[in-house]
TrEMBL record:
Species name: Ziziphus jujuba (Chinese jujube)
Designated gene of the protein: LOC112493081
SUPFAM superfamilies (UniProt xref): Cytochrome P450
InterPro entries for this protein: Cyt_P450 (IPR001128), Cyt_P450_CS (IPR017972), Cyt_P450_E_grp-I (IPR002401), Cyt_P450_sf (IPR036396), Cytochrome_P450_Monooxygen (IPR050665)
PANTHER family documented for this protein: CYTOCHROME P450 CYP749A22-LIKE (PTHR24282:SF20), CYTOCHROME P450 FAMILY MEMBER (PTHR24282)
Protein name: Cytochrome P450 CYP749A22
Keyword Ribonucleoprotein part of the UniProt annotation: no
Amino acid sequence: MSALGNLVIIFLSFLGLCFLWTFIKVVHKLWWRPTRMQKLMRSRGIKGPSYRFIHGNTKEILYMKNKAMEKPMSLSHNILPTVQPHIASWVKIYGKNYLQWYGTEAQLVVTEPEMIKEIFNNIHGAFPKFELHPLIKKIIGDGIINSEGEKWTKYRKLSNHAFHGESLKGLSPAMITSVENMLERWKSYEGKEIEVYEEFRLFTSDVILRTAFENNYQKGKNIFETLVRLIVLASDNIYKLRFPGISEFFKTNSQIELDMLDSQVGNNIIEVIKERERKVITGKEDNFGSDFLGLLLKAHHNAADNERISIKTVVGECKTFYSAGQETTNSLLAWVVLLLAIHKDWQEELRNEVLNLFGKQNPNPDNFAKLKKMGMVFNETLRLYPPAISLKRKVEREVRVGKYILPANLNLFLSALPVHHDSKIWGEDVHEFKPERFSQGVVGATNNNPAAFFPFGMGPRNCVGSNFAIVESKIALCMILQRYSFTLSPTYVHMPYHLVTTRPMYGIQVILEPL
C-alpha cells in the first residue's frame, strides 16, 4: 500500500475517532446525564414531567403558556393558571416541589415556604446565585445580580450607599419633577379614558434618567428605547432552544439583532462614561456627579484596588438599574391603580390618608412611615401581582434541605406566585383584594413566616433597590390621589402575563376624573 493510502487511512481513522468522541459527548449531555439526574431525583422522592430529548419540557411549557393566553381572564386575581400554567398544573400532579427541564438543565421548582426560607438564608453556603441565561444577562447586565463572594460584597456595599434612606431623600425632588411632568400630560385626559401602564412606563423611565443620567438625559433616553426592544426580543426567544454549538456558527435573525442591540446599549453607556470622565479631566466638573452613574464612576476610579470596580461592572450595574428599577416600579404602580379603580372604598381611604398627612403639598418621604394604609395596599398588590415571580439559585454541593438530599449542580427555581396564592397560607379568600390582612404588618399577615411573602426576595441577597421602587411609587400615588379619582374603564381586558415582570398584556385603562 502506498504512503498516500496509509495517510488516507490514518486521516479517516482520526475523523472516525473525532466523530465517535463527539457523538459520545453529545449523547452524554443530551441523554445520559439528564436521565441519570431524573432517576436519582425520583429515588429521593422528587418527581416531575419526563425529560424530552434536547428540549426538556420547554415545548410543553411554551404550549401551556400560549394556550392559557388564548382568551382573556375574567376580572379575577387568580393569575397563577394564566401567568405560570405549567407550575399551576404540575404542583397538583407532582407536589409542591418537583423537577422540570429547561433543555438539558434540571430545575427543581420549589414552592414550599420552609424550603424556600432555608435556601434563601443559605446558612450552609451551598446555594450561590444561578448563572444568568445569556439572554437575561443582555437585559440586566452582569453586576450585583450575578456576582458572588467578595465581588458581591463590594457591589452590595456600593448599592446600599446608593439606595439608603438619605440618598433616596436626595432623589425625591427628581421623582416629584417626573410625576409633575406626567400629571401635566394627564390634563388632556380629564373626564376621559387613559391607559396608565404606558404612562407609568414613561414616568419610571424619566425617573431613572434623572437619577442616573442627570447630565446626559437624551443619551439615556436612547439607551432606554434600545433596552425596551431588547427586552421584548429576548423574552420572545427565551424558550427557543437550539442544538448545542450550532448557535455559535449559525445565528438566526433574532440572535443577530439581539447581539446588535446589546452592543448598542453597551456602547452608548460607555460614551456617557467617557463624556463624564473628560469633563473631570479637563476641569469642567469637580467630580463625576451625585447620581447613580457618578457613584459607579467614583468606585471605578477608586485608588484602592480592593474597592475599585471594572468598566464592565459599571456598564452591567447601569443595565441592572435601568431594567430592573424601571420595570419593577412600572408593574407595581399599574396593578395598584387597577385594584384601587375596582375598589373605590380603598381608593377613598388612601386619598384621605394622603390629604390628612400632606394636604395639597408635595409628599415628603420623611413622613412615608405614617402612610399605614398605603403600605397595606402596596403589600397586598405585591402579593397578588408580584413583579418578579421567580428567583433562581443552584446547588453547589450535595446538601440536605428539609426532607430532601439535593445533588450538586441542580438548579433551583423558587417561585413566589404559587406561594403568594396558596390558600393554606392566606385562607380561602386568597384571591381576593384584602389589604387589611396586612394591618399588623407582614409578620402578622404571614404568621411570622417570612418565606410566605417575598416580592423582593429575602435573606442577605434581597433586592437592594426595593426601597427605591417603594419610595418612587408612594410619591407618584400620593400626587395622583391629591388630584384625581379614577374608575376602571369598560374597555379594560384582564390578561396578566410575564415579560421580565408581571404586566398587563393590553394595558390598564381607567376613567380619570379631576377633584
